[in-house]
Amino acid sequence: MSEKKREPLLHVSKRASLPWYAVWGIRLAAVALALVLCAIVSILVTGENPLQIFSTIISGAFGTSRKVWMTLQNTAILLCISLAVTPAFRMRFWNVGGEGQALMGCLASAACMILLRGTMPNWLLIACMLLASLLAGGIWGAIPAFFKAKWNTNETLFTLMMNYIATQLVAYFVILWEVPKGAGKIGIINQQTEIGWLPVVGGQKYMLNVIIVSVLVLLMFFYLNYSKHGFEISVVGESERTAHYVGIKVDRVIIRTMILSGAVCGLAGFLLVGGTEHTMTTTIVAGRGFTAVMVSWLAKFNPIWMIVTSMLLVVLERGAGQIATNFGLSSSFADILTGIILFFIIGSEFFIFYKISFHHSDAKEAIARG
Amino acid sequence: MDNFLSFLISLFPRAVMQGTPLLLGSTGETLTEKSGNLNLGIPGIMYVGAISGVIGAFFYEQSAGANMNAFLAIGIPLCCSLLGSFLMGLLYCFLTVTLRANQNVAGLALTTFGVGIGNFFGGSLIKLSGSAVPAIVLSGTSSYFSASIVDSSTGNWFAKLFLTYGFLAYAAVIIALVASYVLGHTRTGLHLRAVGESPTTADAAGISVGRYKYVATCIGSMIAGLGGLYYIMDYTKGIWASDAFGDRGWLAIALVIFTIWRPNVGVGASILFGGLYILHMYIPSGMNLAVKELYKMLPYVVTIIVLIITSMRNKRENQPPQSLGLPYFREER
C-alpha cells in the first residue's frame, strides 16, 4: 500500500443524454434555488417577508391590465430579438450585435417617418419603414458576417463594436432631427398626424406587436427545424469541415444567415419605433440585444421555449422594478435579481451534461463486485 | 505650430486620464483572454471595482471625519476594490471553468449583474448620505488618490505632460509593462499562453489548465477593477453618479483587440483611445453639434479596422488565443 496515490475526491464525466423531464427538472430546481436566494437578498435589503416580495413581483408584472400589456409588449420585443440572434447561434456565430442591428432598424423606421411624411399614403409609408428596417438591420448583420466568411475575423468582437457605431449614428441623427432645436431629443414623432404609426388592432395598442412576434416564433421554428436552410445552419454549426465535405457553401450560409439575423433584429426596431415608442433614442433597445443572447441560450436555441425564457426575464425585470418603487430602492435592483437567476440557470447546465461521482465509492463498488 | 503644441499639451493629459481606466481594463482582459477565457463581464467587473472602492471610502470618511490618515484613505478603498473585483472574477471562473458554462452568456450575465450592483449600492449610498444631488462626493479620499507630483497648473510643459497624474495612472503603466514581460519572457507566461492556445497540449505537458485559468482570470479581474476605482477616485474627483462609468468597459475590450493582445502596446494605445474618446470636445464651436456624436464613433471604428487587418494578414502572432471562448474538458477531445 506504500505506492497509494492521492485520488481526487470527485470525478466528473460526461453524461449520456438525460430524459427531457430530468433536464427540465434540473432547470426548474435551479430557478427555484435562485428564487430562494433572491428572496433572501430581498429580505435583507427590504426587511419584508418573502411572500410579500413575490406577490409584489407578480403584481408588478400582471397587477393591472395595463401592466399585463406592458409585460406582453416587452416580452414581444425581447422575444423578437432573441429569435433574430438564434439562427446565428445555431451556426456557432456569436452575434452579440443584436443591440446595434435593432438600433439600425429603429433608425431606418424613424428616418422614413420623418423624411417621407406627407409624400405618400400611410400604408405605403409603413411598408417603406418595414422594408428600410429589414434592410438596415440586414446590412448591419452582413458586415461582420462577410469578414467572418472571408477572413475568419472574430465575430463576437466585431458585432460588439458594431453596437457602439450604431449607437453613435443614432445619437447623430437624434441631434440632427431634434424637436425643438437644442432639446437633444426627438420627442414623439408625428404626434398629431400619427403618420407611420402601426394600426391599432382589437382596441389594444400592443396587440399587433404580440401577434406579429407570435407568428414569427412559428416561422422561425419551422425555418430552423424543417427547412433546407435550417439544416445547413445546423451542419455548419456542428462542423464546418463536414459542411464543406457535403458540399455546403459555408461562407454563403454564414452571410445569408447573418442577413436574416440582422433583418429580424431590424424588424424588432421597426416594431419598437412604429408600434410602441413612436420616438427614437440611443437607449431605445435598452440592452435587449444582450439579454436576447441569454434568452436564446437558456431556451437551448429552441424558438418555442424562448417564449418561456423571455417571459421569465421580463416578468422578473418588471417585478423587481415594482419592488424598487414600493420599497424606495434603486431600480437597478432588478439587474441584481436577474443576474442571480441567470447564474443559477447557467450553472445548472453543468449538471445536465456532466455527472459527478465520488471516487472512493466507485473503488469500493469495484471491490464489492470483485 | 505653436498653436498645435499648446493644443497637444492641453489634450495629452486629459487623454492619459481617459486612457488609464481603459489601460487597466484591457491589461486585465488581455491576461484573461490569454488563458482562453473571453470575459465579457469586464464592464460589470469595473463597475464593481469602482463601487466597492466607493463603499470603503464612504464608510472610512464617515468614521474618520476630519482627521483622515493618508495610508488608510488609500488602503481601504484599494483593498475593497480589489476584493470586489476578485469575487466577480471568481464567480466567472466558477461558472466557466468549473461548470464549463458558455463564456459569452456567463460574461454578459456578469455585466448585467455588476452594473446592477454598482448602481444599486451607489443609489443606496446616495440615500444614506442624504445629499441633495444624486451623487456621492468623496473629495477627501479623492484628494489622496489624485495627489500628483506637480500641480496641473504648472507652466513647465514636461511636468505638465508627465508628472500631473495620481499614483494609479503610473501604477497602470507599470502593471501593463509587468504583465507584458510576464506573458512574453517567463515560464509562467509561456504556460499561460499554452493554456489559451491549446489547453489539450498544455494539459498533456503537465500544466494545470484549470488553475492557470482561475489565477489569470482573477488577477485580470482585479486589475480591471482598479480601472473602475481610478475613474471614480481620480478622474471624476471622487464623484459617483449612476451609470457614470458609461461604456468604458466595452472600450477596454476593444483596446485588447487594438493592441493585438499586447499590454505594453496598450500604454500608448490607451492614450490614443482616450484622445479619440474626448476629441469631440475639441472640435471648433460653431460646427454642427451632431458631428460630435460621429467623432465618438472613432475608437470603435479604429478597433474594427484593426480587427479586420489582423485577420486579413493572418500572422500567427497577431491572432486571438486559439481556444478563446471555448471551455476545456479533459475527456472530450
Overall description:
The complex is a heterodimer of chains A (370) and B (333). Chain A is mainly α. Chain A has a domain at 75-306. Chain A has 14 helices and two strands; from the N terminus they run E-H-H-H-H-H-H-H-H-H-H-H-H-H-E-H. Chain A has helices at residues 20-46, 50-62, 65-90, 98-115, 122-151, 155-176, 207-226, 228-238, 240-245, 250-277, 288-298, 303-326, 333-353, 359-369, and strands at 10-14, 354-358. A two-stranded antiparallel ribbon of chain A has the order 1-2. Chain A is globular and about 80 Å long. The two termini of chain A are 19 Å apart. The mean pLDDT of chain A is 86. By secondary structure, chain B is an all-alpha fold. Chain B has a single domain (9-318), classed as ABC transporter involved in vitamin B12 uptake, BtuC, CATH 1.10.3470. Helices cover 71% and strands 1% of the residues of chain B. Chain B is built from 14 helices and two strands; from the N terminus they run H-H-H-H-E-H-H-H-H-H-H-E-H-H-H-H. In chain B, strands 1-2 form a two-stranded antiparallel sheet. The chains are: A mainly alpha (370), B mainly alpha (333).
